[in-house]
Amino acid sequence: MKLEPKNNHNWNYEETVARVEEIIDRIESGSLPLEKVFEEFAIAVEYLRKCESFLALGKERMDLLIETLEQEEEFEF
Amino acid sequence: MSSSMVDTALSVAELTAYIRDLLEGDRLLQQVLVAGEVSSLHQHPKGVFFTLSDPDEDAAIQCVVWNGWRSRLAQQPKRGELLLVLGSLRLYPKRGEYQLTVFQAVAIGEGLQALQYQQLRSRLQAEGLFDRERKKPLPSHPQTLAVVTSPTAAAWGDIQRTLGQRYPRLHILLSPATVQGLEAPDSIAMGIERVNRDGRAEVIILARGGGAVEDLSCFNDERVVRAIADSKIPIITGIGHQRDESLADLAADFSAHTPTAAAEKAVPLYSQLVAEHQQRVNAAIEVFKQQIVRESEHLEALATRLKRFPSTSPQLIQATAHCRLLKQKLIALDPQAVLQRGYAVVKQEDNTIVRSTANLVKEQDLKIQLGQGFLKVKITEIWE
Questions:
Q1: Contact (CB<8Å) A59/B292
Q2: Which of A22, B51, B69, B359: CA 20 to 30 A from B95?
Q3: Residue B30: which CATH number?
């Protein structure tokens, strides 16, 4: 498993979250060799960090948009 | 009285026969059209007897419609109605009376208007001009609207006021028309066509002037009805009357009862649109926020599980335990530990460990390793 490049257009939030969940399940089940555990753990942390920053970025953008919505020109009446 | 006078005199029968020949031989009187008001009426088993009279002059004529002809009449005679009848004059010798035998009767005056209205309505209906499928949908948010009405009438003011209150930025075009009198039908039709040629308006309001005793007949005129039906732009009528709908109303895409109601139908209430829009904005923001919160919580839960792994990963626990066990085994095997308990290792100068006295000689140098430190010794005696 390779880390996705940061500006990969195919990057997908839901897919990435699903992979993190898979990794956690695998580690929890105890089916991996130890070396693999460390490797996958590192991948999971990296994926999760990406999801978090994606979410934070999206929230920031949304807050800005909401602000513009709320600042909409004054209606007549 | 001389006998010669008696000789030249006619009998009543002869006179009657003579008059009868005159009347019944006259071509005009055998197929005469006459207009008058039905002043009295009598139903008889053989037919309807009625008197047609001239209300302005003192004149009346008896008429009869025999039962065989009654069903063919366009209009049944009714007391007080103006009627145009076609008939032939007959003389009845027994009573010395003449009477018009009626073959056809049509209404004139109000009755005629009603009849013409019915006929036109049926004809246009048959042509499909009032069909529901023909109705054009009204635009929900028109930006430009045209009003066909008289610019001097009260309706125009009502419409402007209503539109202004409901939808402030609407572009309103006025296509002036005369809505009363003989020129009204052509004027209204032209007003509608003008808006269609111009092409800017998305919807048209056709309104009556607004006076109380105005004539509505122009809105039943075929020219107006066709102009409405031919319009490419949907038309809302606001003719304003209590009685039956006019033909213009039937042909229109929507008919409102008053000019004000037509204006209300034409445009949405802007303040309500704003309120609805605001509700949608708030709902959207709420949904966004909920989604973000849900996702954040999900990620947090995953992070928590990841963070717990150093202490929960089965492999790590197992590996750590295994290492600890091995370490204890190693500790148990450490030779240093044996020395610590008081044993010592004796080595020759080439570091080979001395396990027996064989091959050793007196005065030979040996090294002794203790729990702590080394000794160099010389053999002074050997016991086998």
A1: yes
A2: B69
A3: 2.40.50.140
What are the C-alpha distances in Å from B8 to residues B14, B42, B96? Answer: 12, 41, 21
Same domain, B108 and B176: no
Q: Complex ipTM, two decimals? A: 0.70
Q: How far is CA B253 from CA B83, B222, B229, B233, B268, in A?
A: 37, 17, 9, 9, 17
- Last residue within a domain, chosen from B270, B287, B320: B270
- Is the minimum CB–CB distance between A58 and chain B shorter than 8 Å? yes
What pTM does this model have? Answer: 0.52
Backbone angles phi, psi at B90, to 5 degrees: -125, 145
Which range marks the domain in which residue B256 is found? 142-270
Q: Does B274 touch chain A (CB under 8 A)?
A: yes
**Cβ separation A41–B309 shorter than 8 A:** yes
Q: Do A45 and B306 touch (CB under 8 A)?
A: yes
Asked whether the beta carbons of residue A55 and residue B309 sit closer than 8 angstroms, the reply is no
pLDDT, tens only, B160-186 = 999 999 998 899 999 999 888 889 999
Closest CA of chain B from A12, distance in Å: 14
**Is residue A5's pLDDT more than 70?**
no
B227 and B162 in a single domain? The answer is yes
CATH label of the domain that carries residue B147: 3.40.50.960
